[in-house]
Amino acid sequence: MTKPITNQMHHFTQNNPEGIGQDSVPALLRRVATTIEELGAIEVYDLIMHNEITDDGTDWPSITVYFDYTHADEPAEDAPGEDAPAVT
């Protein structure tokens, strides 16, 4: 039997708040950059941009970031019953 893969990849998806400016890609990139900086020492593996069209026909892009922590001091798992912090 082969040894199971034990690596873990983290990710988050972020978009602009709904409303005026929700379609601004430059604003979205700034928000994602701020979140990446706030996460600390990480290695980003991939960024994927998605675009949703709202009911009124407006673009609403989002970016999913796939990353891993570069140090052993990564945050502990959430305790059972606790919600992870929201990323908006």
Automatic annotation (TrEMBL):
Chain segments carrying region Disordered: 1-22
Polar residues bias (residue ranges): 1-17
Top-rank taxon: Bacteria
Protein name (record): Uncharacterized protein
Gene source species: Microbispora rosea
Lineage start: Bacteria, Bacillati, Actinomycetota, Actinomycetes, Streptosporangiales
